[in-house]
Every structure is written in structure tokens, then in C-alpha cells.
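Researcher: Structure prediction, please.
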Amino acid sequence: MKYAVLDFETTGNQSFDEIIQVGLAIIEPDRTISQVYNSFVKPSIPIPPFITGLTGITEEHVKDAPELDEVMMEMVPLLNDVVLVGHNVAFDFNYLQSALDKTGYLPFTGRILDTMDFLKIMFPSLMSYQLGMVAAEFDVQHDRPHQADSDALATALIFLKCLEECESLPLLTIQRLVDLFAGEDSDLGWFFDALLQEKEREANPNEGGFTYYRQFALQAEDWMDIETPRNALLDNPLEDITFEQFMDQVRERLRERLPQYEEREAQNMMLHEVMKAFDEDKHLLVEAGTGTGKSLGYLLPAIYHSVKQDEKVMVSTHTINLQEQLRERDIPLLTEVVPFPFLAAVFKGRQHYLCLRKFEHKINRRDFTTPKEEVMTAAQMIVWLTQTINGDDEELNLGNRGNDFWETVASESDSCLGRSCPWFRKCFYHRAKHEAGVADVVITNHSKLFTDIQAGHQLLPGYERLVIDEAHHLEDVAGKHLGINMKYFTVIHTLTRLFKDSKTGQFPNLRIQLQSSVNEKSAEWCSVIDSFYPTLVDVKETWDKLNELLFTLMPERSDAAPGDPGQFVFRLLPHKKPKDWDTLAALENQIYVSLGDVLRKGERLLSQIREEQDDIGSESLLTDISGLLKDLGTEREALRFFMKLDGEDTVYWMEGNGNYRSRSLQMYAVPIDVSAQLKEYFFDSKKSVVMTSATLSVDKSFQYMIEQLGLQEAASEDRLITSMLPSPFNYRDQALLVIPRDFPSVKGSVGDDHFVTTLVRSLADTAIATKGRMLVLFTSYRMLRQVYDPLKELLSAEGITVIGQGMDSGSRTKLTRRFQGQDASVLLGTSSFWEGVDIPGEALTSLAIVRLPFQPPNHPLVEAKSERLQKEKKNPFMKLSVPQAVIRFKQGFGRLVRTSQDRGIVIVYDTRILESYYGKYFLYSLPGPKMEHMPLGQMVPRISEWLNPEEQS
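Model: Predicted structure follows.
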């Protein structure tokens, strides 16, 4: 097969836009690139500045270029008898057809393949399918992105990589792909057909390295074979070895592996504090700033303790992100430097693992809701099975719609057949659980810790020692898990999976199976299933009505701009129920009764069928239905708990969004104070709990955290060690904090014109002085929106890009990557950017904090906590609002200096930090940067002088 890889640069992407450059790379049947044809094309319309900015192609380049006629005359012969390939090929194909038409040639009728499809299927774990990112990942030279010849050549090289990968697939996987695309009349299906014929002709295909089972090729082997890490060792490798001796061996190996390794005082202190807590059965609060190396600071003592004492240590992180970082970066390093074998297993929530039984079922029955997208996702996952050992969804790049697909094939406890499942020995969830069982250290997340508590400790292996990283989130996560949070769609999803219409859903599937069975009770069972439909339809209608009425209780937004949907929040007070609450309670009761009826009859029906039918085909279906009924039962109880509104220690509220109205409704019922539960579950029952984070202290004291987490008793009984580690960085030289003392102030979450204009002007001047490389943190999304357009306009003339969270599409990680990838850019972020974003080095030089990060005082949870403190005659502002804001402020400040080489500026535009009595708590909590305040007019010169001292002298 001969391929022609095509790329056009055009004046835009509308039908009237024109081609300005052509790139065409020809791949011969022997897989060599025989030529790259390239030419500018003279357009009849001017090139927009945006396109010049993107491609670097100017009017100068095209003014003497050949006309389209001439270019097509050279290009058409090259397209003879080829398969056309492109990256997002539809775009280039449309321009090709229109160019052929304009210049009097026949349309192109050959096969067309898209490298995007190949990348998705063959490399399902790539983080991004954007051409530049993929080229970097594959080490493909791509010097001039967005120029046609460079793009065409890079695409051709990437396509060759995909072809290589296709050929390395086992025969069985290719057969599966051919089956999958069989119904689709597509060129992709044609390609896999041809590949299959070629593969079948090979005399002895090399099929090694895979496990074959039930017509799938897998990378993972039976998990039953995973043994404890030191099975072969008779004696304990740490028999007579002290922690110091162990650390000496580790440090020696670290020096061999990392020539630039240097001991850090703070890390050594942390190693000893953690070890001391383990040895003396105490709890530890340890604040370790950026650069301490805190992951190794707790992992090394954890490994030493678990191996020496033969006692498992549990490590919990707040985000899956950090869990992955430990798996990808820290554990492999430790495996090399710890002088004996050990096992650290990562164990996530169950929904992160693929259920092979459900996946097989879905593929074999082609149970697809949106066939075009879902066939693609299924293809990705069939190939992924030949690559993955963990079966964990974080490894997959599924795109937006893929998440709905994942939900239907994710592992769940209620639909698990356990040992009677044909896939049991290959099951990814049971593998993770088994690994956690034999591991020395288990890495999980806060969410799973609480799910385990709710499941009566059935999920995680038993543990006596726990390390909690990112511990400043523990209280928050506890509240979410020990309370309830229900979405409108929670119930809808469960109902639709049971029964979408009379043909689709698990009940209709069961009915179809019963109809074809010979059992004399089948007819009776079918009529029971039929009787469920009207009830479930009623439940859905009543649920819709209840959500609509609940949504009408939401107040009009006082701070919302006209036409701005915004986020609604409304608190419900047990002693002051809204009027007409009885009407709503009656609807809830209707749902409660109807569902109770379906649940009882449903369970009875399932157990009757189970007794009569030995047919394994319906066994998995019965288990799935039983799981969905359990979900409905849980949702029914949660709704009742919410609607009763009778918990004195619970805060009830609803949230919604003006755009999606009642469909966006969420109901919350959360304990006001979780400290008593944390004390009971962790501090009273575990031998030692180590809590660490970069932000645990306020004004050099741990008192706030001790109270929030329920550690008072441990502290008074001398069972709590607290430690603030010195920073490894020299903040006096590395960071300058400036406060413009005459900056206008703001009332509420939205700035007046004077404030916004002054802020935009100042941000623009600073960004020009620091050549972009600036992160601006807002506390309200509305203010970010006020600043975005005017700032973008001011900076575009300077060649500085402005990227705004929520304004530019993409997740937080994608926006951060874009920011790092562009030399001169300014990133505007709100809440989630205050922490966890890591931008080391040159990419970030200045950080602007627009307002001190106080939580909105009217948030129901903050409100309820404040009321409780007032009852106890305490000042809620000083006891709650200030400490929370200080911790957030320290998190924000921590974005700036990430390595000992970083230098940077922090600007705080909120003058309350100077004028108010509480401002000093913010400043004293920082790790000692140089602080200066001055009139706004002197700020930019001072920043330039500090950043470039050599130019001044």
C-alpha cells in the first residue's frame, strides 16, 4: 500500500477560506518516505493576523507563490492510487475536494485514514493526541509546527509508528478489531481487514508475551501467582539493622544512582520524626514545605517499619494525581535504592478498575448507546488489554464520551460474582486487592479510607499505622463521605440502566433471555418484569417533579450579572423548613413507597430465577440487576435522610446551576463537625497516624489543625508530636513579596470599574516586565471573567498570551501544560489552581494574588460551623475564617518557588493584609520571603530591578 500524508495551512476554517500552504509526504509500500512535496499558495484574500501568529506564514511568503491551479497540477499525479492520511484528516480532505473542484479535477475517491484514530486505538494511554505533543512523546523531529511540510512529515513519521504498533498486535486482537468495525462501513474497518489477511498469511506469527483467555489477548497474568516480596528470604533483612544503618545504605545507593543527590536537612529531620512516631506509637503532625522531599520522608520509614516489624503501613493521598506520582516516580526509585525486595501497592476505589466480565458482555452483545463513539472506545480498550497490568482507568485517555462507556464496564461490589466469575483469576480489582494484601506499604487515597470505614473495614487490608499526605484536606473529605451527596443524575443513571425503554436496559435483557428459556415459570416471571415498567416510569416522573420544585426554592443570585447562570447554593434549616415542604415530602414518600415495592418484588424474582436456572449466561445478568437494585435502595434511603431534615449536627443544602436548572441539582447533608469521628476511627484506634502537608500551621502554631481533626486528647496525653521543618530554600533571596499599599479595595466578590481597570493595567505592566510567565490567582470566577478580555487585549500587542480557566477549554492539567509550553503567557486561575499545580523553573516568575482567599461566609458549611462557634462564645472569624484562608494563602504562595534555583515575585493586591488586625497572620505564616510595600507606581520598576540586579548596577 502506498500512502500520501496530507496537510494544508489555510486562512481559517470556514468554507470560504483558502489554502496558503501544501505539504504532502509520500510513504512507499516498503515504508520509506520517498518525497515531501511542499509549496506556498497565493490566496486571493489577506492572511488574518491570527493565522500568521499561529503558522508564522506572512503575506511576504505568499506574494510570489504559485496560484492554486499550478500547485494542483503538481500535486494531483502524486495522489494517484494512494491511501490518503492526515491528522484530523476531515479538515484537509474538505479543502482538497474543494480545491480539486475549483481547478477542474475529479474528486478524490480513494481510501482515507486519520492518524488520530490510529493513535487513540494503538496508544490508548497517550496523555494528548495533539500533533506537537505526540511528536515530542515519540521523539519525532517537528521543528515548525503549523507549517504544512513540517506537519505532513511529522504526521507521516507518527503514522509509521502506528503501523509498526499495529503489526505487533496479536492475531486475536486484530480479529477482535475486525469484528468490532464489521458493522461500520469505514476505511478503518477496511484497514484492519487487510491487516488481518496479512497476519493470517504469516507462517509462524510471533505471539509471545500475552495471556489468551475467552478470545481476548491480555498483558496481565493470573494474580493468584503474585507472592509476598521476600518469599525466598529466610531471615528478616532488617534483623539487626538500625534505622540509621538502613538509611546509610540507602543514601549510598542514592549517590550512585543520582550524581546530583544532596542530603537535605529538612528531609533528615522528617525521616526521624516519622520513625519516632512509629517507634513510640504516637501521632505526628509534620509541616514540610516544597522541596523537602516529603514523599521519601515518609516512604522510607514506612518501608523500614513494615519490613522490620512485619506490619503493614497504609499511605493515603488526597488526589489520584499524587498516587500516580508515587507509583510512577518515587516507588521505582526506592525499588532501586532499598537494599532488599519490598512491595508497595497502589489501591484505588473500585470504580477505577475494569470489570472484564462486563466488558466481554458489552463487546459480544454490541451493547452500544452511541455506536460511532463507543466502537472507538471499545477498540481502544481491546488494544489496551494487551498493554495494561493494572486495568486502571487513569491509564486511559478516553475523551469526553468515553467516561459514560467506562461507567458501564467499571468494577462494582454489588455486581461482582466473586469466585464464581469466569474472569476471577484475571480480575484487575481482585489483583489490586490481593497485591495490597501481600504488600508492605499500601498507597490509597482519603476517599477510599472513608469508603472502607463505611464498609466495615472490608475493603482495605488491616493496618495499625497510617500516613496521611496532603492532610489539610482530611476534614473536607471526611465530611463528604460521612454525609451524603446526591445528584439528580445519580438516580436517573440507575433507573436507565435497569430500564431505558422496553428494549434496552437490564430488565428487558433479562426478559429476552426468559422468553427463550423452556422453564414453565418464564411467562409468570416476564409478567412480573412487565409490572415494574409503569412503577419505574412513575418514579422517574415524580423524581423529576421533586427536583424541579426543589430547584424553585433556590434564591435569585444577588451577585450574578444579568444573564449569568452562575452557581446557586441554598441552605435548608431543620427548624425553619420552607413553606410547602409537606408537598415535597409527599413526593418523596411516593418515591419511597414505589421503590420499596419494586425492590421487594425484584429481589424475590431474582432469587426464584436463581433457584430454577443453572444457566450461567443469566447469572451475570442477575448479579448486575441485583447490584442496581441495591443502588436504588441506597439512593432511596439517602433521599429520605435528606428530606427528613432532622439532624441537629448535620448541615443540609442544595446546589445547582442556572443553565441546567433542576438537572444540575445536588443535595448535601454533611456533619458540621467531623473531629469526633476522626478521633474515633483513627486517633483512638490506630497505633500511629502521621499527617503531613506543606500547610498545617497558622501563625507558627498547629492549634487550628489539632482542633479541626480531633487531636486535643492525643495532645494532652502526650501522644502527639508536632514538627515544623525548616525550608530547604533561601526565601530571602529567592522570593520578593510586594504589596501596592494604595491599591483600591473591593466589596463583595465583584470589582467596580475603577478596581478592574487598575488591576488590569497593573497586571499588564507586570506581565510585560516579567515577559509573561505569570500566574494570577482569583477567589471568584466572576472577577476572573471581568479581567480576562481587557487583559488579553492589552497583552496581545506585546505577544503575550492570556489563558483563562473556564474561558479557554481544557482541564487544569491541560491549561497548565499550555502555559508551560508557551514562552510568554499569563494564566488566570481560581480555586483549584491555588494548590497542586507544579510549575518549576523559568515557566513561572511571578504570582499575583488578587484577593485573600477567604471562603464565602454564606457557604452553608462555613455558616453552620460559625453558628456553632458562636454558641461556644468563640469568634468564628478568628477561629475559622482566618485560619482557613491562611492555609489556602500559603498553598497559593507555594506555587512560586519549586526548586532551589527558582526566583520569583509575589504581588498581593489585597491591602487588608497591611491594614487589618488579622493581616499579620498571613504574612507571619509565610516561609520568610523579602517583603516590601510601596505605592503602585513604584512597583514595576522595583520588580524589574529585583529580577535583573546586574542590569541596575
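Model: The two ends are 67 Å apart (CA to CA).
Researcher: Thanks, that helps.
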